[in-house]
Amino acid sequence: MKSVLMIGQSNMAGRGFLNEVPMICNERIQMLRNGRWQMMAEPINYDRPVAGVGPAGSFAAMWCMEHKEDMIGLIPCAEGGSSLDDWAVDQTLFRHAVTQAKFAMQDSELIAILWHQGENDSYGKNYQTYGKKLQVILDTLRRELNVPEIPFIAGGLPDFLGKSGFGMNCTEYKMVNRELLKFAHEQKNCYFVTASGLSSNPDGIHINAVSQRTFGVRYYEAFSKKENVLAPMEQETELLELCINRRPYTNNEKVYLEMTKFASGQITYEEFVKNF
What we know:
It is a single chain. This protein is an alpha/beta fold. Helix content is 38%, strand content 13%. It is built from nine helices and seven strands. It has helices at residues 10-13, 56-66, 92-104, 130-145, 173-186, 209-225, 236-245, 251-263, 269-275; strands at 2-8, 29-33, 36-39, 72-76, 109-116, 152-155, 190-193. It has a seven-stranded mixed beta sheet with strand order 3-2-4-1-5-6-7, sandwiched between helices. β2 (29-33) and β3 (36-39) form a beta hairpin.
């Protein structure tokens, strides 16, 4: 099995509303939870009770569409509200991510690191030291996990920041994006993914569920093509339709979906048994 490490703050963990997008049900997408691989269910990165849809689900769905037989595991380690300093190599979040990744690597091959962070560093001129701090984080990750060539995919900050709600104070997000893009140009196997055109939840800081699905497609494009994604892709909607909605369910997935309906009170036990 292949695996992917997810780190950063809340827009990597995911705050998209679960009821706004179709569910991803794919038994070849696993997530690490309670020390074991389980079939993926959103929220994948349960860092807060408000956790929801992030980019990792559609990233994994895209991966599965191009790798018909293999399985992929998601290692959720993002933490809402975390600053770049919170991810310093001597801090808890970094140590936890390394521990989880090493555990996952006992029976999987780590193939990518997905990063989205910067809202908490979009003021106070923190962008001035962003690239230098991020380089220490990435270099140490690669060294401790013994993956010197692993791709590092960094998502940009969206243009709705600095305008309303909780995002009002993120006035320097363009400078952070500039540093992220510069980092991607200067570092080996690092790629930048634009958040251009993505929309927010009403809070003005979190990417909504529909846009998170799109973001995941862009992350995968950068990973698979090994290049920066600097503008919205022409076929994002069509790709999402193909990798999520048009894929026929397996028997195990059908059982899982019915079990989900039963557990959430949508059908009775008798209806569940009758279906199988």
